[in-house]
Design the sequence.
């Protein structure tokens, strides 16, 4: 059963959409459940000279938990520094939503991964220092997306073959 907060974010998600000319774009997906999240960020400097997420939007193809976690992460990081955003954990998202069924907790990982990918994209495009942990996360996500893409091609090939019989 989902909490009221989860259902509120599912029925009325915040920051849905795409940012044209985004400063950073990140995508994460789960091969098992099929959920895919894409996060777009705009980055500006605050008065202290820190990089902040001035705007953030998402597009998610997924279940109630996937959409709710996408919506929640945008609320948790909008207006915050990149360093703060990188520290958002799956547990923080779940706690902010009042909980998720155990079988759906992986959705919060997708939300943090998509955000981290958007930040990675921003930092790399601007030749800024990328924290070692973020580089490692990027490599893991990139590998998972390649596996998902390969599996998708296999399914399409198999389906096309079956239809031709």
Sequence:
């Amino acid at each position: 059963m989902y909490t009221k907060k989860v259902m509120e974010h599912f029925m009325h998600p915040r920051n849905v959409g795409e940012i044209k000319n985004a400063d950073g774009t990140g995508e994460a997906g789960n091969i098992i459940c099929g959920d895919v999240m894409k996060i777009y960020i705009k980055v500006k400097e605050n008065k202290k000279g820190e990089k902040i997420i001035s705007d953030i939007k998402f597009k998610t193809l997924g279940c109630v938990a996937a959409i709710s976690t996408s919506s929640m992460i945008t609320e948790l990081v909008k207006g915050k520094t990149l360093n703060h955003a990188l520290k958002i954990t799956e547990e923080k998202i779940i706690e902010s939503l009042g909980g998720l069924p155990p079988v759906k907790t992986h959705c919060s990982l997708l939300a943090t991964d998509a955000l981290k990918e958007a930040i990675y994209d921003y930092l790399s495009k601007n030749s800024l220092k990328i924290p070692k942990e973020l580089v490692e996360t990027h490599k893991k996500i990139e590998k998972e997306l390649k596996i998902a893409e390969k599996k998708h091609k296999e399914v399409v090939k198999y389906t096309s073959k079956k239809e031709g019989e």
Summary: The radius of gyration is 17 Å. The mean pLDDT is 89. The chain is about 55% helix and 15% strand.
